[in-house]
Amino acid sequence: MAWMETPKSRRRILIRGAGVLAGAAAATALNPFTAAEAQQTSFTNPVIWQDFADVELIRVGSDFYMTASTMHYSPGAPVLHSRDLVNWEFIGHSVPRLDFSDWYDLNGGHRYIVGIWASSLTHRASENRFYWLGQIDFHRSFMYTATDPAGPWTRHAEFPRSYYDAGMLVDTDDTMYVAYGNTELYVAQLSADGKTEVRNEHVFSSPSEIGGLEGARFYKINGSYYMFLTKPPNGQYILKSSSPWGPYEIREVLLDMPGPIPGGGIPHQGGLVSTPGGDWYYMGFVDAYPGGRVPALAPITWTADGWPQVQTVNGAWGQTYPFPNLTPHPVPSMIGTDTFTTATLAAKWEWNHNPDDTKWSTGNGLRLQTATVTDDLYKARNTLTHRIQGPSSTATVELDPAQMADGDRAGLAVLRNDSAWIGLRRENGVTRISMTDGHTMDSGFNTVGKGIERASAELCGSTVWLRVTADIRPGAERQAHFSYSEDGSNFIPLGTAHTLGTSPAFFMGPRFAVFNHATRSLGGAITVKRFTVTA
């Protein structure tokens, strides 16, 4: 990796790019942080209790940046920023729109559980430019680039090869490499402009006694080349060579190491990063279903012969560690209230597939016009999602239904391959409150259940508050509960509890999701006046 100082001040990064903060949250960003917040002496894992899988993190000068998998959500490949490795904030996305096929628009099909898989983020100091690379649908790869990590990002290149679980390296001579593969590991050298491949070689085969290795991250450290690889879901290994083309030695980094989250899995995948002072850290993720895969941080030391070692606490990945030897930089919370008063959405928001941009707007609340005629939530466009904060959190939306049309369905969902919602059904000129579950997918992520209404209530006022509380601690039988209010203060439970799925096959954890779709004809709309997440 090549490090250099970013020319932008932290304040500029905080307030610009893709609507980093919106509505009431903007005021929070300008408030001074307390002395206690600025004097952190330790940190607790997970450092972010939200679903961020397959992370890669880099340092540019004194700034750290991280990306993660987003599959079918759009925009894709979030960019997070930190100055201390512990406090992170959204600043943008590397892939502004998933324009890889019509199915990413829910046109003729869907792309659930494909899209943005384990991808790579790097910085090229010679250009002061950021690069993102990822394979799409297992037969093509795309590169995006930006001079500002907050964006705008633009497409730079398309490659006719699937760089599966790619890891990019900008060498000290400015040559760009890509490490990738599963079990059979390869290195590709890119052209000087990063737009074509000029060399490709097989460099390593996973030993049979270890099994498949993937999730490559590629580094040059003290003159040696390292390929950091995961054995999912319980191991991490590293390859070392004096050349990017090998031959490589292999060393175990961890195997079956107890993790920092009770009931969760073994930290793995992710990547390594150094601080300006020369300390090293490993950010991996923990399988923590039903919540998803959440990032955990641990310090790294190096042996005399150049191999990394995770610093453990009583033989385990620590639940707490001393704070990095960096000045703490508290940032605005990743949860809170959004009143959608800005012209763009805050970077924390992601749509289920690409939205129809003619059917939504912000500035005076979030206006969602119906964009799809369907009786299937999974085929409805313009469903806007927010990650669930662990270990448990509550989402509340204030919603104006006055412009709903007959046949419309709108509300707040817990969205995954088994979904449920509380919301509104408009029929024969009457709008009623409804709790519905049974929206389900099969193993091929095709809809097999379109929902069963469990309870309903009369809507008496012109505004309704809808609420979902979700417990995403690792383990079976965690539940989401639904309620509503017509005054914003007194909430009435409705329907049945929804048991959250723990199957890793869907990869992503559940999300809070606001939706509005028609079952008869387009033309209706809702306005979300306020969306609040509290923990």
Quick structural gist:
This protein is an all-beta fold and 535 residues long.
Overview of this structure, please?
GO terms for molecular function: hydrolase activity. Residues 1-29 form the signal peptide. The structure is a single chain. Strand 21 and strand 22 form a beta hairpin. The protein contains 2 helices and 39 strands. The protein is globular. The chain is mainly β and 535 residues long. The two termini are 37 Å apart. Strands 24, 26, 27, 29, 34, 35, 36, 37 and 39 form a 9-stranded antiparallel beta sheet that branches.
Structural class: mainly beta
The end-to-end distance, rounded to whole angstroms, is 37 Å
Report the portion of residues in β strands: over 45%
Calculate the mean pLDDT score and round it. 93
Helix percentage: under 10%
Can you give keywords for this protein?
mainly beta; hydrolase; disordered N terminus; 535 residues; hydrolase activity; globular; 9-stranded antiparallel β-sheet; 8-stranded antiparallel β-sheet
Question: What is the strand and helix layout of this fold?
Answer:
Blueprint: H1 10-15, H2 24-29, E1 42-44, E2 56-60, E3 63-67, E4 73-74, E5 76-82, E6 89-95, E7 120-124, E8 129-136, E9 140-146, E10 154-159, E11 167-170, E12 176-182, E13 184-190, E14 197-205, E15 214-221, E16 224-231, E17 235-241, E18 249-255, E19 268-274, E20 280-287, E21 293-302, E22 308-310, E23 320-322, E24 336-338, E25 350-352, E26 360-361, E27 366-369, E28 384-387, E29 392-400, E30 409-415, E31 418-427, E32 430-441, E33 447-458, E34 464-471, E35 479-485, E36 492-493, E37 498-499, E38 511-517, E39 525-534
Antiparallel strand pairs: 1-23, 2-3, 3-5, 4-25, 5-6, 7-8, 8-9, 9-10, 11-12, 12-13, 13-14, 15-16, 16-17, 17-18, 19-20, 20-21, 21-22, 24-39, 25-28, 26-27, 27-39, 28-38, 29-34, 29-39, 30-31, 30-38, 31-32, 32-33, 34-35, 35-36, 35-37
